[in-house]
Design goal:
This protein is of the alpha/beta class and 421 residues long. It folds into 3 domains: 2-172, 3-Layer(aba) Sandwich (Molybdenum Cofactor Biosythetic Enzyme, Chain A), CATH 3.40.980; 175-252, 2-Layer Sandwich (Alpha-Beta Plaits), CATH 3.30.70; 258-418, Alpha-Beta Complex (Maf protein), CATH 3.90.950. The chain has helices at 10-14, 21-30, 46-60, 77-85, 93-105, 153-172, 189-196, 199-203, 228-246, 258-269, 283-289, 307-314, 318-324, 329-343, 390-410; strands at 2-8, 35-42, 62-66, 89-91, 119-121, 125-127, 136-141, 144-149, 175-184, 207-213, 216-227, 250-252, 273-277, 298-303, 347-353, 368-375, 378-385, 417-418. The strands form 4 sheets. It has a 6-stranded mixed sheet, with helices on both faces. Strands 14-13-15-16-17-18 form a 6-stranded mixed sheet, with helices on both faces. α2 (21-30) packs parallel to α6 and α3 (46-60) packs across α4.
Length: 421
């Protein structure tokens, strides 16, 4: 089954609101065999909304819209669609009763404008919204299927899950669109492609997409048009082959973050971690503490941005700073060892670098970062050069710091991580 999306809202076109609803709908619909073939964003006008819906129906016969179902003057999706389909609007007492009950539960009184939310196109099925005030609508018209959902992300997601997907699944015929992700880090996209070689032939009928980002390259494998069980078998084999070829740069075969995997690895070993950060300014500690339950493995850290703090709080020797500079292997090692010693943890991570945009030299360019991991079996250091803006360099450095410890826990760390500009 093919489906088109129409997202309604002038704020989407102006860039003030990011459309997250479309991605959620496409993922969830694909899992039940409904393929989203086009997305269209339109402003809050009757002509744009009605025109987009009719065009979508003419192509695929099924369209789902989000947004424009509230009580304000710019919420015109329902009236626009009803007019386009030639359906009169009727006041639905049961919808109004639901709204009154919800407002009473909130200790509020609905305004006169809320009555517009109880106006329903003739023949439409009302999708009860138990998470907000704007009900969804399902219209099986002679021109095709129209589904209207509110734009508030939580309300949209809940209505999609509980009201829309079960209905669509009955029409989808059992063939699904399934995807799995192999997550890699610390390897450039081109180098990864060289490693994978002709893997797309080996994993067919699965297709492969490279999705590079600041945290690494995600390898998205997708299967379309197969039954659910067969899709799972194909993806399992495909993921195993891609992971085998990508090797030590793989850290997850799902949507897990590297921080989640690292916390799990430390928890399994009943070991603890502390960090000493300079150029990353607490990003590594922040990534770790984003993971629920990370307190069982993470003690804390020191943001030693200034050399004086490296001296005073971490005990980095002045002579080491004078001889090698703050961005150097000896300083990174001293920071990692101090974090481990002062917090009494099994491991310590030290990171120091030049995030830019200024401060670089021919010997130590912008993007140069030194890492060290100190543990029961000694201290290892790694040098990386990252391209990009200050924000990108710092994000990549935080990811690499996590990766080096993750690899240390599971196998020998890789050699220097170089990102060619």
């Amino acid at each position: 089954m093919n489906l088109e999306l129409v997202t309604v809202g002038t704020e989407l076109l102006l860039g003030f609101t990011v459309d997250t609803n479309s991605a959620e709908i496409a993922r969830r619909a694909g899992a039940i065999g409904v393929r989203v073939v086009r997305r269209t964003s339109v402003g809050d006008t009757d002509a744009e909304i009605g025109g987009a819906v009719l065009e979508a129906l003419g192509r695929t016969g099924a369209v789902l819209s989000t947004g424009g179902l509230g009580p304000t003057s710019d919420d015109v999706t329902k009236t626009a669609v009803a007019a386009a389909l030639g359906l009169p609007l009727r006041f639905a007492d049961h919808v109004w009763d639901d709204l009154l009950e919800r407002y009473q539960g909130l200790g509020r009184t609905p305004s006169p404008s809320n009555r517009t939310q109880a106006m329903v196109p003739e023949g439409a099925v009302v999708l009860r919204n138990r998470w907000g005030t704007a009900p969804g609508l399902w219209i099986d018209s002679p021109r095709g299927l129209v589904i209207m959902l509110p734009g508030v992300p939580r309300e949209m997601r809940m209505l999609l899950e509980h009201e829309v997907l079960p209905r669509l699944a009955e029409r989808a015929g059992g063939r699904v669109v399934r995807s799995r992700t192999v997550r890699t880090t610390a390897i450039p996209e081109s180098t990864l492609a060289d490693r994978l070689g002709d893997v797309e032939q080996a994993v067919a009928p699965a297709t492969l997409a490279y999705l590079p980002g600041l945290e690494g390259v995600d390898l998205r494998l997708t299967v379309q048009g197969l039954e659910s069980d067969e899709s799972d078998r194909v993806l399992e084999r495909a993921c195993a082959e891609v992971a085998r070829r990508a090797g030590e740069f793989v850290y997850a075969l799902d949507e897990s973050s590297l921080a989640e995997r690292l916390v799990d690895a430390l928890r399994t070993r009943e070991q603890r971690l502390a960090v000493a950060e300079s150029c990353t300014g607490g990003l590594i500690g922040g990534r770790i503490t984003d993971v629920p339950g990370s307190s069982v493995v993470f003690d804390g850290g020191v943001i030693a941005y200034a050399n004086a703090v490296k001296l005073r709080e971490l005990g980095v020797p002045q002579e080491v700073l004078d001889a090698h500079g703050a961005v150097s292997e000896p300083v990174a090692c001293a920071m990692a060892e101090a974090a481990r010693t002062r917090f009494g943890t099994d491991y310590g991570i030290g990171v120091t670098g030049i995030a830019g945009p200024g401060g670089g030299t021919p010997e130590k360019p912008v993007g140069l970062v030194w890492f060290a991991v100190a543990g029961p079996d000694g201290t290892s250091a790694h040098r990386s050069i990252f391209p990009g803006s200050r924000e990108e360099i710092r994000a990549r450095a935080a990811q690499t710091g996590l990766y080096l410890l993750y690899r240390r826990l599971g196998a020998a760390p890789t050699a220097a991580v170089e990102y060619p500009v």
